């Protein structure tokens, strides 16, 4: 009697699974990578010699610190998005990092040791121009901030304002620079373009304009102080004029009215490259001292000279600052070398040349940050942080050793796809056997036998490896993932993440470990380009490599180009993409495949002509045959126009339907179809009375979301239109009154979920629309948009959601059996896995027998947020922008990648892991029970036999 | 080639207009025309045009006139002509090559008569010609409006919608349209049902709350406690632990 119960307990324990992550599961199936974005300002911590910190301010409004030995992020401050949080300048002095934020709105001081905020001061309005430290008697006590019309001085210790002065004639003079050389004056330099230069000296004590040193210097050639002038030596302003090719010097601290002194570049035997604007670079090592009198002059893209200002302040000689750097590019561009020059002699320091190879798949070096220091034996050593055009940071130490590289382009992922990994060689061998044509019975048998021998061999090798590794201590076994060892795992849980970033760099990332396996930088990608990544051929067609196509489209001109590549290795394909001379309006991937199993991509240009890729004869023939059943739609949101087209046999198109939403009333903000790789397992829902409510599963359905042009809270609305993409029929049209965007929505199966802001109640709300055909199917075998005369029943319900959201996506599984969850990215960085069960328009207001039978949750207006639903526990994803879901080989498991500033990869199990044994599954217990049962039956059988025998004897 | 369709168009329009005067085969939803009480909302008519060509190049010609009436209760009715001999022939030919039957209406506003003429462009929809033929010209035309009464879309379906390749006797079945016409305005999406939920919660609370709160612990078990206390008091100066044990036992 006890046996069945214990068996039952074991059986049942399989189904009791946890919902949240256990402590020991942290990081087992998930990983997170944190990024900061494109570096704007970088400083080495020069406060102490042994320090290994690096401070960065980036275009993503982030102030961060790195460990310079490892490249790991020490801390990071993420400010507001947009101009409110932009970092105008970052300057470092000792342990203080000063930052002007938000276009001159705030002045902040950070403690560089811990990353804590020392103080924050609100500045007067006015756009920020420049800032510098001000020192008296070798100690830096103040910071000067120059605005468009005012200059203010702040104490470094607490941020209090010492004085603020309005600048004279600020409507005509453009004040662009502020300079302090350690004296009692602060100089402000302004320019009236192409007229004259203005220099004002302020007293450090009270902000008085002292000694009447406000003069105007005639400078008709000067248009901007910022771009063409630097201060060098003992307060000498050095400017370069690209028109006359001359240098101009001016002592700004002079008592009487000074004049510019012209030095022609010709007189120095210097020549500027054709069409190049000469650039001056100077250095002020310490704010309490004046800048060094040596400076760089860049004469061409690859041509720099190092010059020194002679003591008289008017003549120039060749030389160098104490430490400085100089780059030259070798041709062809494969390596880059950095040299160190001595300021005293102007000669290159020996043994300081660093040659580092350039990544062929990366960008060119763009900026260098050099940290030079004296070693114990008084020799010079230095480290370099190289920023390349693809936003990558490389840290180099002597002699040319790359210590670490950070791919900061990944802070701005635009789109991504997950591609299955290829099979191993042996598996591929087996696959290949089925692919080939049969050539007789006997060879086939031989082939089968040989491939099975190979499989057996591989299995034995695998067993041996397992045995061998089991003897090693646990920590040493490391599965290094390289591009060569990549192969699909048993359940297809490991995939290749192909990520496209805004900078035009493509990455291939292993989804299991998060390591970057390949990268490819596309040069000449415009900053406003739009990307669309299309998987044309998956890994399933063995001898043919998988193929991805990236459509890069210029947003302004609409001109597009294609980049075809292998998603596993990142290599550019040898297949030549078609030339696209006209702007592209729409691209669509057809289910038609060519003889090489690549899906056909159709590109529609602005004359509604269609280009097919690949465009082999086979494809064109197939297209001609299928032309009358290829429909596509175009949406012009600026005109509110949705129109449908049909392909003709000659690959021209004809317009067949048109829907126009007047732009005076509402504008289209988003259009979303369904994902083509989505499977729906169940055609209907079984209701409480055992009848079936069939889902309206229209694969061509588009969800169009509009927002009203009228922004008044009483009259604003959000419109949701469900339009059939083939016939243009408006299936459903609903208006959410007193609502406004941003609208986030997911369209899948037979439902649309959208989220909006309720302007009346001032809260976020979720609404769900579900479409049903009714209790009878019109045509159960096949769905055709052309033959579905009856409109579906639409059910809708709305809920209050207690948090704003930033993005939304639905889980996706292999066969669609697993229940769906919505993955909601919250501004806090958490990712919420919300069961779709809660967003069901059939949730009853009053619980009945039928609804209980159906397992419907009674309606509650507020949607709960449970902390155990956060799939990323404490691994928040800053500024989450998108969530990508992909099915795995296990029906229960869905792979999730959330990207934004950070990248987070994990797995979710919407219906728990019904097809997987638990991690801590008690194999010992179940096998011992089995063995015990087995022996018990053996023994009892034997005993029974003996007993029978005895009885027979009796 | 260009002159042929123009003359063809003329030929087809003339009988259309002629028949239009005589025949008012139509269907209607809502109020009838001719109430004439409010000039602003009095009906106006827009043309409904159709096109079906063997070479699939759209040449729209008159099918009928839509009588639209805006206001609080929008209504629409359609007066349309019969198909001419030539049209019937073309339609059958188009159906044979699986061509499309397209209709279009101009973009108009039902409420704002001033801007009605300024809007250019048409709203187009289509149905397979074969399904129209096989359904014996019984079609359902739906006009969609937006919140402010602009026509935003038109759709046409036939019932039944499938093409099975059945032969159709043209004289009997392809003469007059059997049209069902509807006009659909956007539905208001529901708001969260807070009031109803709170009401229901209150009712449930009342139902459940009253009998529970009535009886306190003492009220329930006084018959056990009182004798126990009495017993303790009677037994007098017993030690504390013994009393506590007795108390626990009693409960």
Automatic annotation (TrEMBL), chain A:
<dbReference type="InterPro" id="IPR026895">
    <property type="entry name" value="EMC1"/>
</dbReference>
<dbReference type="InterPro" id="IPR011047">
    <property type="entry name" value="Quinoprotein_ADH-like_sf"/>
</dbReference>
<keyword id="KW-1015">Disulfide bond</keyword>
<protein>
    <recommendedName>
        <fullName>ER membrane protein complex subunit 1</fullName>
    </recommendedName>
</protein>
<keyword id="KW-1133">Transmembrane helix</keyword>
<dbReference type="Pfam" id="PF07774">
    <property type="entry name" value="EMC1_C"/>
</dbReference>
<dbReference type="Pfam" id="PF25293">
    <property type="entry name" value="Beta-prop_EMC1_N"/>
</dbReference>
<dbReference type="GO" id="GO:0034975">
    <property type="term" value="P:protein folding in endoplasmic reticulum"/>
</dbReference>
<dbReference type="InterPro" id="IPR011678">
    <property type="entry name" value="EMC1_C"/>
</dbReference>
<comment type="subunit">
    <text>Component of the ER membrane protein complex (EMC).</text>
</comment>
<feature type="signal peptide">
    <location>
        <begin position="1"/>
        <end position="20"/>
    </location>
</feature>
<dbReference type="GO" id="GO:0072546">
    <property type="term" value="C:EMC complex"/>
</dbReference>
<feature type="domain" description="EMC1 first beta-propeller">
    <location>
        <begin position="20"/>
        <end position="408"/>
    </location>
</feature>
<keyword id="KW-0812">Transmembrane</keyword>
<keyword id="KW-0256">Endoplasmic reticulum</keyword>
<dbReference type="InterPro" id="IPR058545">
    <property type="entry name" value="Beta-prop_EMC1_1st"/>
</dbReference>
<dbReference type="InterPro" id="IPR015943">
    <property type="entry name" value="WD40/YVTN_repeat-like_dom_sf"/>
</dbReference>
<keyword id="KW-0325">Glycoprotein</keyword>
<feature type="domain" description="ER membrane protein complex subunit 1 C-terminal">
    <location>
        <begin position="748"/>
        <end position="953"/>
    </location>
</feature>
<keyword id="KW-0472">Membrane</keyword>
<keyword id="KW-0732">Signal</keyword>
<comment type="similarity">
    <text>Belongs to the EMC1 family.</text>
</comment>
UniProtKB/TrEMBL annotation, chain B:
<keyword id="KW-1133">Transmembrane helix</keyword>
<keyword id="KW-0732">Signal</keyword>
<protein>
    <recommendedName>
        <fullName>ER membrane protein complex subunit 10</fullName>
    </recommendedName>
</protein>
<dbReference type="Pfam" id="PF21203">
    <property type="entry name" value="ECM10"/>
</dbReference>
<comment type="similarity">
    <text>Belongs to the EMC10 family.</text>
</comment>
<dbReference type="GO" id="GO:0072546">
    <property type="term" value="C:EMC complex"/>
</dbReference>
<keyword id="KW-0812">Transmembrane</keyword>
<comment type="subunit">
    <text>Component of the ER membrane protein complex (EMC).</text>
</comment>
<feature type="signal peptide">
    <location>
        <begin position="1"/>
        <end position="29"/>
    </location>
</feature>
<keyword id="KW-0256">Endoplasmic reticulum</keyword>
<keyword id="KW-0472">Membrane</keyword>
């Amino acid at each position: 009697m006890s046996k069945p119960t214990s068996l039952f307990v074991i059986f049942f324990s399989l189904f009791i699974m946890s919902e949240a992550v256990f402590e020991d599961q942290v990081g087992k199936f998930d990983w997170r990578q944190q990024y900061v974005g494109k570096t704007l300002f970088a400083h080495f911590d020069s406060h102490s010699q042994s320090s290994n910190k690096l401070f960065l301010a980036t275009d993503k409004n982030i102030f961060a610190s790195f460990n310079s030995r490892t490249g790991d992020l020490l801390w990071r401050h993420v400010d507001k998005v947009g101009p409110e949080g932009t970092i105008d300048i970052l300057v470092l002095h000792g342990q203080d990092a000063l930052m002007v934020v938000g276009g001159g709105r705030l002045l902040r001081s950070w403690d560089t040791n811990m990353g804590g905020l020392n103080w924050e001061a609100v500045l007067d309005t006015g756009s920020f121009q420049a800032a510098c430290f001000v020192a008296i008697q070798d100690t830096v006590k103040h910071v000067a901030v120059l605005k468009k019309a005012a200059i203010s001085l702040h104490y470094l210790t607490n941020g209090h304002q010492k004085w603020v002065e309005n600048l004279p004639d600020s409507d005509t003079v453009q004040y662009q620079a502020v300079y302090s050389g350690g004296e009692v004056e602060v100089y402000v330099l302004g320019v009236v373009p192409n007229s004259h230069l203005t220099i004002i000296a302020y007293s450090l004590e009270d902000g008085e304009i002292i000694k009447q040193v406000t003069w105007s210097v005639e400078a008709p050639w000067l248009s901007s102080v910022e771009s063409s002038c630097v201060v060098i030596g003992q307060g000498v302003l050095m400017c370069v004029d690209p028109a006359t090719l001359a240098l101009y010097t001016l002592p700004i601290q002079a008592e009487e009215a000074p004049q510019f002194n012209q030095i022609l570049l010709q007189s120095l035997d210097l020549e500027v490259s054709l069409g190049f604007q000469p650039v001056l670079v100077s250095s002020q090592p310490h704010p309490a001292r004046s800048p060094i009198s040596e400076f760089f002059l860049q004469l061409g893209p690859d041509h720099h000279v190092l010059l020194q200002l002679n003591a008289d302040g008017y003549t120039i000689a060749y030389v160098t600052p104490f430490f400085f750097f100089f780059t030259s590019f070798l041709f062809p561009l494969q390596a880059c070398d950095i040299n160190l020059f001595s300021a005293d002699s102007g000669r290159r320091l020996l043994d300081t040349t660093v040659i580092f190879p350039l990544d062929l798949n990366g960008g060119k070096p763009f900026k260098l940050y050099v940290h030079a220091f004296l070693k114990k034996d008084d020799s010079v050593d230095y480290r370099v942080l190289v920023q390349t055009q693809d936003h990558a940071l490389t840290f180099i130490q002597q002699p040319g050793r790359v210590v670490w590289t950070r791919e900061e382009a990944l802070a701005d992922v635009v789109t991504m796809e997950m591609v299955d990994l290829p099979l191993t060689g042996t598996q591929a061998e087996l696959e290949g056997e089925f692919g080939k044509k049969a050539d007789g019975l006997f060879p086939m048998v031989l082939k089968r036998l040989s491939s099975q021998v190979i499989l057996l061999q591989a299995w034995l090798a695998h067993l041996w490896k397992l045995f061998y590794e089991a003897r090693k201590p646990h920590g040493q076994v490391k599965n290094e993932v390289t591009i060569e060892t990549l192969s699909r795992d048993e359940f297809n849980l490991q995939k290749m993440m192909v990520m496209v970033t805004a900078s035009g760099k493509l990455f291939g990332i292993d989804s299991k470990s998060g390591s970057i396996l390949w990268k490819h930088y596309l040069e000449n990608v415009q900053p406003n380009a739009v990307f669309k990544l299309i998987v044309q051929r998956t890994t399933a067609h063995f001898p043919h490599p998988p193929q991805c196509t990236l459509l890069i489209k210029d947003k302004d001109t609409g001109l597009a180009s294609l980049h075809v590549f292998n998603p596993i290795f990142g290599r550019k394909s040898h297949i030549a993409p078609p030339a696209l001379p006209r702007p592209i309006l729409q691209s669509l991937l057809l289910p038609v495949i060519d003889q090489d199993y690549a899906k056909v991509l159709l590109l529609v240009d602005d004359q509604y002509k269609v280009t097919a890729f690949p465009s082999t004869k086979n494809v064109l023939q197939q297209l001609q045959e299928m032309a009358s059943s290829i429909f596509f739609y175009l949406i012009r949101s600026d005109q509110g126009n949705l129109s449908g087209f049909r392909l003709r046999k000659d690959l021209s198109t004809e317009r067949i339907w048109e829907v126009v939403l007047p732009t005076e009333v509402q504008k289209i903000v988003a259009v979303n179809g369904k994902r083509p790789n989505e499977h729906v397992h169940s055609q209907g829902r079984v209701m409480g009375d055992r009848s079936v409510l069939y889902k309206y599963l229209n694969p061509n359905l588009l969800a169009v979301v509009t927002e009203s042009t009228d922004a008044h809270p009483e009259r604003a609305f959000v419109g949701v239109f469900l339009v059939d993409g083939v016939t243009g029929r408006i299936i459903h049209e609903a208006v959410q009154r007193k609502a406004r965007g941003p609208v986030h929505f997911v369209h899948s199966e037979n439902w649309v979920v959208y989220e909006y802001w309720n302007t009346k109640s001032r809260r976020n709300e979720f609404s769900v629309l579900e479409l049903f055909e009714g209790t009878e199917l019109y045509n159960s075998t096949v769905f055709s948009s052309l033959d579905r005369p009856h409109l579906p029943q639409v059910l809708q319900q709305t809920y209050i959601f207690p948090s704003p959201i930033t993005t939304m996506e639905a889980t996706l599984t292999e066969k669609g059996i697993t229940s769906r969850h919505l993955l909601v990215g919250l501004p806090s960085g958490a990712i919420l896995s919300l069961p779709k069960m809660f967003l069901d328009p059939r949730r009853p207001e009053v619980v009945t027998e039928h609804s209980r039978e159906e397992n419907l949750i009674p309606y509650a207006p507020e949607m709960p947020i449970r902390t155990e639903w956060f799939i990323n526990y404490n691994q928040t994803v800053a500024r989450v922008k998108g969530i990508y879901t992909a099915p795995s080989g296990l029906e229960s498991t869905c792979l999730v990648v959330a990207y934004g500033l950070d990248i987070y990869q994990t797995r979710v199990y919407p219906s728990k892991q019904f097809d997987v044994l638990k991690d801590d599954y008690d194999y010992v217990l179940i096998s011992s029970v089995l063995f015990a049962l087995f022996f018990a039956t053996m023994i009892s059988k034997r005993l029974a036999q003996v007993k029978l025998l005895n009885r027979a004897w009796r | 080639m260009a002159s042929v369709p123009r003359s063809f168009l003329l030929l087809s329009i003339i009988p259309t207009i002629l028949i239009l005067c005589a025949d008012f085969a139509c269907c209607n939803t809502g109020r009838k025309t001719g109430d004439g009480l409010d000039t602003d909302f009095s009906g106006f008519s827009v043309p409904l045009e159709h096109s079906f060509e063997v070479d699939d190049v759209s040449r729209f010609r008159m099918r009928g006139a839509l009588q639209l009436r805006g206001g609080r209760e929008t209504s629409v009715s359609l007066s349309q002509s019969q198909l001419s001999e030539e049209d019937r022939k073309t339609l059958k030919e188009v159906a044979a090559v699986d061509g499309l039957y397209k209709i279009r209406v101009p973009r108009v506003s039902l409420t704002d008569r001033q801007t009605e003429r300024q809007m250019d462009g048409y709203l187009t929809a289509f149905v397979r010609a074969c399904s129209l033929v096989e359904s014996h010209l019984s079609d359902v035309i739906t006009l969609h409006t937006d919140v402010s009464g602009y026509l935003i879309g038109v759709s046409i379906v036939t019932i039944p919608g499938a093409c099975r390749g059945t032969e159709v006797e043209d004289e009997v079945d392809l003469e007059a349209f059997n049209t069902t016409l509807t006009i659909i305005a956007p539905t208001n999406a529901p708001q969260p049902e807070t009031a109803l939920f709170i009401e229901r919660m209150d009712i449930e609370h009342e139902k459940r709350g009253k009998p529970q709160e009535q009886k306190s612990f003492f009220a329930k078990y006084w018959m056990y406690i009182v004798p126990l206390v009495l017993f303790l008091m009677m037994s007098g100066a017993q030690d504390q632990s013994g009393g506590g044990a007795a108390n626990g036992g009693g409960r």
